[in-house]
Amino acid sequence: MNKGLLIVLSGPSGVGKGTVCSVLRHKMPELVYSVSATTRQPRQGETDGINYFFKSRDQFQELIARGAMLEYAEYVDNYYGTPRDFVEQTINSGKDIILEIEVQGALKVKETFPQGVFIFLMPPSLDVLKQRIVGRGTESQDVIDSRMSVAAEEIGLIRYYDYAVVNDEIEAACHRIQSIVTAEHCRKERFLANLPEAVKTAASEKA
Ligand SMILES: Nc1nc2c(ncn2[C@@H]2O[C@H](COP(=O)(O)OP(=O)(O)O)[C@@H](O)[C@H]2O)c(=O)[nH]1
Ligand SMILES: Nc1ncnc2c1ncn2[C@@H]1O[C@H](COP(=O)(O)OP(=O)(O)O)[C@@H](O)[C@H]1O
Q1: Which of the listed residues 68, 108, 133, 206 has the most CB atoms within 10 Å of its CB?
Q2: What are 157-174's pLDDT values in tens digits?
Q3: Which atom of ligand 2 approaches the CA of 168 most closely?
Q4: Global pTM?
């Protein structure tokens, strides 16, 4: 059986990662979502275990020390990280999983899972990005300023990603991501792995 795809979706704060993922949940119900741990405070309406596993700094450091994190990063004064076991169990069971994480963490995942599918969600412009993050109304002015200055650095790391998807319009962005996942499922390597030996040899000789 083929392993599931490990899909990483990154992009600056406010670009629309959360919005795109919530629409994708309906369009791609078979896709599994990794729930991250974080030390940031829950926003209104966020639930522990659904949006994030909310942890104290001590608890988070204990998880790191136990090797329970596939990756983690410090982003604007808080820790964020991906619980390892859930990701490994999901892909080993043949299901696809999506991680919505920032760039430092994505680059660490790439070291462990170079075969992952790395997608960068781009804003139509930096002005639109600022309007979205301000419009969301969840962060103080200081935090918005920090996130905007991190955004420029993050966009500079796009070269490490396999795909860039502009989130100009939510439906269009989701459609692009669905197309990427479909294309990744059609990669010849996934078929070659399951071919009978004789056919596999012939197929790789011709490749
Ligand atoms: N490295 C890493 N980054 C994460 C993880 N979970 C969330 N993030 C990223 O942390 C940043 C801040 O997340 P959050 O405070 O929820 O703000 P929002 O993404 O703007 O709604 C975003 O870029 C997230 O994609 C994780 O498990 N690991
Ligand atoms: N394509 C889009 N067009 C217009 N507004 C959008 C679009 N995508 C997201 N938004 C809005 O931008 C704000 C930030 O989106 P969010 O999903 O919270 O971003 P992120 O998770 O990347 O920080 C939200 O208010 C959301 O409704």
Answers
A1: 133
A2: 999 999 999 999 999 999
A3: 1
A4: 0.93
